[in-house]
Design a protein that fits this description.
Elements lengths: L7 E3 L11 E5 L7 E9 L3 E4 L5 E9 L2 E5 L2 E5 L3 E4 L6 E5 L4 E10 L2 H7 L4 H5 L2 E4 L4 E4 L8 E6 L7 E9 L2 E6 L4 E7 L4 E6 L2 E6 L2 E5 L5 E5 L4 E10 L12 E2 L5
Antiparallel strand pairs: 1-19, 2-3, 3-10, 4-9, 5-8, 5-10, 6-7, 6-9, 8-11, 12-13, 12-22, 13-14, 14-21, 15-20, 16-19, 16-21, 17-18, 17-20
Length: 258
Amino acid sequence: MLSQDIPIVHLKTQLPEQTQPYSEPLLENEIEGISVEHVVITAGEVITDYPADGHKQIYLFVMGTGTATIENIPYEIVPETILLPNIAKKVVVQATQGHILHYLKISSKLTAQDLLDLKEFPVNNTHQVYYAKFTDCQAYTEEIKSPNTVSRTILPNKYIPRIAMGTVQTIGPDEVGAHEHPMLEQLFLGLSKNKCVVFADGAQVHFPQYSLLHIPLGSRHSVSVDKNEVMYYVWMDFFLDKEGEEWLKTHKVIDAND
């Protein structure tokens, strides 16, 4: 396998201001039922989203600051925050004066089984807006990661059917050990200062900050970072069915009292 067998795209973070607002689909048709869009808003611009029926949307804010208003409630947007509007019919996003706001909008098309499963989820998970800064989210450990690695769950399962997300952060030399998970599709989003290498079967690709890649389904993959370099990315798990979510039991929650 060659490096192009790990599909990767780089977010356009240096756009002329006159091109704002800007949006671009990323890694189209890579994962069934999932679409990803890079959205850029400059100061003074406002984007109003109306989530489509039969879909769930996730916003990952990665650069710049702003405000997301849902049902007349403003949510402060800073780099590395996540927002789910859940049942809200409208989301208004605006950049702070003097800032350019970059975010990913991820849309998941719900299957008939997903719609049934949603009825069994906790009401707070599916009806209330979910908003969190990555650094405030629950930390966990995992056998394939070193004790130096900080991992957090930024989107637990049982909010959107068959989806969970988290972050991985460490300083090299370090690695995420080789592993396989044929029960899920996975995207990685490189965050600020991320500079590492992703391996999948015989392929490898350099994975810099503000890039998005797709781990080939079922591949044996790992991530490596050199001395004094940063590994810092979001993993996004898209399970093929709800039974596959058993994989998340490999994440051992860190007790705040430890």
